[in-house]
Amino acid sequence: MSYVDEVIEKVVAKNPGEPEFHQAVKEVLESLRVVVEANEEKFRKDALLERITEPERQFMFRVPWVDDKGQVQVNRGYRVQFNSAIGPYKGGIRLHPSVNLSIIKFLGFEQVFKNSLTGLPIGGGKGGSDFDPKGKSDREIMAFCQSFMTELCKHIGADTDVPAGDIGTGAREIGYMFGQYKRIRNVYEGVLTGKGLSYGGSLARTEATGYGLLYFTDELLRLNGIELAGKTVAISGSGNVAIYAAEKATQLGAKVVTVSDSTGWVYDPDGIDIAALKEIKEVQRARLTEYKKYRPNSEYHEGRGVWTVKVDIALPCATQNELHLEDAKALVANGVIAVAEGANMPTTLEATHYLQENGVIFAPGKAANAGGVATSALEMSQNSERLSWTFEEVDAKLKNIMVNICHNADAAAKKYGFAGNYVVGANIAGFEKVVDAMTAQGIV
Ligand code: NDP
């Protein structure tokens, strides 16, 4: 049996009941087969793949807090410190009822390669809780965040592990967590990113993942001789990534016709009104049913359906496994040119293969959505030098990073005979640097 298959089997056996983690490991290791096979003997002797698929450290903890009725609630907190070969662990905190160890490990594993791809000195980690911020009062959110950080603060630090936002963790939650960290540890340091501008946050961090996705997509299309301007775009989600992806796509001359949330989706043939979307989601924190009040020409549909619309480009920006095989078939039947992942692993493996086999340009999240973590790393740099850069400076650096990631993934794919396969290219480009660093640092 090949070394790759052997390790996939071991990972599945050693981590029962973790389907998302298995899926991520399979996806990454399958695409690294060509590199691993070229170095099989050495990698096997060094147990490189066993080490890279085993988190350096992971912990789960009780998060008790009191709700507004005086009732004690108990959630479970997670932090997986996956790999620190190239820098301090870095990765977001997800607050969503679906969170479990499998999801946090899949995200942490993917983060290792994504962070490496940015070219910046950051290792990979991820954390979160099954806490659901929806419908909670500000006081309840604060009570949860403080309790969560009371335990987490023992394990993180500006040079150790620097968490950030993710689904359910925005500026408000980061603020409460930062306050509690400072209070307990008595240090003012850049221990979290995604902070408010008044206390060490970076300009352009809010926009970074969505903007970065479009800088990447624009460059990728250009490499393939296609222009983004004038194209029609379907976006799923209406959170941080989706909103700023829609904004930048519109600025670059494309027309975004859909957005969605967990209950339904909007089709606006005239192009999504970004100001209305921001008002509904960022200010009112309301459902997309409100959108029709701003744009009477638009349609609201319950349930799923974004991928049934005829578009040139699809940008899944909601959550994992939201673009299934039947969605891929519908997109291909409608002549889609490119799919670029704004969310983490939104496309199932079957859907990814179908898109690639049918000539669709496919950009994996770990390359296409790396703008968020890249800008978090820029926030860390600003915190270390105790300076703040302008929006334009950060945005220019972000664009440069995304263009470089695109070229590096393209070059790595070509080097190993997989021209045009950006999944393989991104995984190889990210993997090579981590393996280099791990090898140099000995058996740790
Ligand atoms: P948000 O919480 O801001 O938005 C998430 C969006 O997806 C919301 O519209 C939400 O709808 C929808 N959604 C969430 N879960 C589901 C579900 N199970 N089914 C259908 N819709 C769902 O998160 P972000 O925009 O920050 O993150 C989106 C994705 O991008 C995630 O995969 C995240 O890991 C990834 N990502 C985010 C980065 C960032 O900087 N923010 C960086 C890199 C990746 P509703 O409001 O109804 O819940």
The end-to-end span amounts to 26 Å
Largest sheet, order of strands side by side? 9-8-7-6-10-11-12
Bound heterogens, unique = NADPH dihydro-nicotinamide-adenine-dinucleotide phosphate
Q: Secondary-structure element sequence?
A: HHHHEEEHEHEHHEHEEHHEEHEHEHHHH
Backbone structural class? alpha/beta
Report on the biggest sheet: 7 strands, mixed
Strand content: 15-25%
Runs in which pLDDT lies below 50 for 5 or more consecutive residues are: none
Return Rg in Å. 21 Å
Tally of helical runs: 17
Q: Helical percent range?
A: 40-55%
Text of the CATH class of the domain at 207-368:
Alpha Beta
Tell me, briefly, the overall form. Answer: globular
Mean of pLDDT: 97
Superfamily at the CATH H level of the domain at 207-368? NAD(P)-binding Rossmann-like Domain
CATH architecture annotation of the domain at 207-368: 3-Layer(aba) Sandwich
